[in-house]
Amino acid sequence: MKWKAIGIVAILVFALVASGCLGGGGTSSTSSTYSGTITLYTGGTSGVYYPLGSKYAELLNKAGIKAKAVTSGASVSNAKAIGNGDAQAAIMQNDVAYYAYNGLYMFQGKAIKKLRGVAALYPETVQFVVKADSNIKTLQDLKGKKVAIGAPGSGTAVAAEQILKAAGVWDSIQKVNQKFSEAAQALKLGQIDAAVIVSGAPTPAITQIAVTTPVRVIPIPDDILNKLKSEGYIFYVRQNLPKDTYKGMTEDTPTVAVKAILVASADLPDSVVYNMAKVLFDNVDQLRAVHQKARFISLNTALDGMSIPLHPGAYKYYQDKGITVPDKIKPPSG
C-alpha cells in the first residue's frame, strides 16, 4: 500500500506540473508570472526619458512587476541593449526603432529583431537651441559654428546629421558629442554656438539654463521637412513650439518631431507586457505629475507613430480595449 500511495502522489504531481499549476510553464511566453527584474533603459538625467522611465518603473514595482530604470545614451544605445539582453524594455524614438528592427542606416546588417512595440508616448521635438542674442537665425547660419550634436550613438546624433545634411551644412560644422546636460551648460558658458536636443519640449536641461541665459530655437522650414521625407525619413512630422516654451523665445517656432515609444524585448512573457501596458495607461495621471509631456500619453494615440511590430502581450491588451491594430504592426506570426 505504501508504494501504491507514493505512486499515486507521483502521478498527481506530474499532472499538476504538466498543467502548469506548479509553475512548470514559468518560462513560457504566456506565463502569468516573471521572476526576473525588467531593466528599463531611458536616457540622460536631464531629458524626459529618465524622469518618466523612473516613475514608470516605480509604478511597475507597485503593481508587482520587478523593474528598475537606468540612464543610458538614449535611443540607439537602448535598441542595442534590447538586442544583447542588457535591457528588457526601453524608451526610444520611433525612427531609430524602425532602423534597428529592419537593420537600416546605423544598424546596417545588424537588425535587432527582438524589438517589440508597447505604446507610442509623445512627440519628441527636434530643437536646435542657441542663445537668444545669437546672430544664428537659420540652419544655414550654423556653417562653421561649433554645434553639440548629441551623445555618441544617440538618436539625437542621428537626427542632427540627417537634418543638417538636408540643410547642406553637416560637413561644415564643428561637431561636438555631448549629452543634453553637458550641451546646455556648454551653451550657457559660450563653449558651443548651438545645441541639438531631441526630446519632449520643454526639456529640463534647457529650461534650467534659460532662467539666466535666455534661448531661442532655430526654425526648421517646410523645404527641409519635405526634403527629409523625400529621402526616406518618413518619421518626421511638423510641430510648432509655442513662444512661451523657453525664456528668451519671442514667437512661435516651426520645427519637426519624431515620436517617443515604449518598447519591450520579444523575450518577455506576454502576460508581463500585457500588464506593462495596463500599468502605463492606468497611471497616466501620475506620469503627468512627473513631466508635462506625459499629457500626450493616451489610449487614443497609443498606436500613432508605432513603427515596429507590437509585442503579443501589448496586442492582446489593445484587443481587449477594443482598439483596432493596423496589420503592419501586428505581432509577427510564429
Can you tag this structure with a few keywords?
11 helices; globular; single chain; 34% helix; 10 strands; 10-stranded mixed beta sheet; 334 residues; alpha/beta
Architecture overview:
By secondary structure, this protein is α/β, with parallel strands linked by helices. It has 11 helices and 10 strands. Helix 5 links the parallel strand 5 and strand 6 (about 175). Mean pLDDT is about 90; it is low at about 1-35.
Strand content: 15-25%
Q: Please state the average pLDDT score.
A: 89
Sheet having the most strands = 10 strands, mixed
What would you call the shape? globular
Query: Which structural category fits the helices and strands?
Result: alpha/beta
Uncertain regions: pLDDT < 50 for 5+ in a row?
1-33
Order of helices and strands: HEHEHEHEEHEHEHEHEEHHH
The first-to-last residue Cα distance is 48 Å
What's the total count of β strands?
A: 10
Radius of gyration: 23 Å
Number of helices: 11
Residue share in helix: 25-40%
Topology of helices and strands:
Blueprint: H1 2-19, E1 38-41, H2 49-62, E2 67-70, H3 75-84, E3 89-93, H4 94-102, E4 115-131, E5 146-148, H5 155-166, E6 174-176, H6 180-188, E7 194-199, H7 204-210, E8 215-217, H8 222-230, E9 237-241, E10 253-265, H9 270-282, H10 284-288, H11 312-320
